Amino acid sequence: MNYVGFSKFDTANGPGVRVSLFVAGCTVHCKGCFNPESWDFRAGKPFTGETLEALLSGLRSPYVRGLSILGGDPFEKENMPQVLAIAQAVRREFGSTKDIWIWSGRTREVLERDSSARAILSEADVLVDGPFVEKLKVTEKGHWFGSTNQRVIRLRPVAAVPAAQDRAPR
């Protein structure tokens, strides 16, 4: 798996200060996507053991709340084995003390039909799902989604997730 972005100090993609990983590869190709350069599976750099250690090192900072995995799309079949390994490594080291947020252009209902996607969802705390729809674009700040059709879905009870950001599934 390749990645096109990595930040140890992200405040735009989930609550609090976060480590964020933008994976490469997406076949959804939403019109108006904010990150179309991430569609190419060969873009960016290979995710290695060194990258995983840098990610875990960033999460060790006491002020970092959790991990955000975006893309591209983490739920592309080419990305899922490595994304699952990352989520499992975070859980092994941090248990539930750091939350995992993950974004997909696919809906939860579609993801739950795939056993590999279900395995990733079982490690995550929050899923932001659905394709970006340009005519439903959100322009005000403070949302974790790009268009109003997208949902922020708690996958497990997380006291640290701000209730004001929750969106009930439609």
Protein architecture, described:
By secondary structure, this protein is an alpha/beta fold. It has one domain (2-165): Aldolase class I (TIM Barrel). The chain contains four helices and seven strands, in the order βββαβαβααββ. The protein has helices spanning 49-59, 80-94, 108-111, 115-123, and strands at residues 2-10, 17-23, 45-46, 64-70, 99-103, 126-129, 151-154. Strands 3-1-2-4-5-6-7 form a seven-stranded mixed beta sheet, with helices on one face. Helix 2 runs parallel beside helix 4 (115-123). The longest helix has 15 residues, at 80-94. It is globular. Mean pLDDT is 88; it is low at 160-170.
What's this model, at a glance?
This is Anaerobic ribonucleoside-triphosphate reductase-activating protein. This protein has 170 residues and is of the alpha/beta class.
Q: Which key terms come to mind for this protein?
A:
single chain; disordered C terminus; 22% strand; 170 residues; TIM Barrel; alpha/beta
Which helices and strands, and how do they pair?
Layout: E1 2-10, E2 17-23, E3 45-46, H1 49-59, E4 64-70, H2 80-94, E5 99-103, H3 108-111, H4 115-123, E6 126-129, E7 151-154
Helix pairs in contact: 2-4
- Give a quick account of the main beta sheet: strands, pairing sense, barrel closure: 7 strands, mixed
Shape descriptor: globular
Strand content: 15-25%
Strand order of the largest sheet: 3-1-2-4-5-6-7
Low-confidence stretches: 160-170
- Looking at the overall shape, the CATH architecture is Alpha-Beta Barrel
Figure out the total of helices: 4
* Helix and strand sequence: EEEHEHEHHEE
Mean pLDDT: 88
* Overall structural domain count: 1
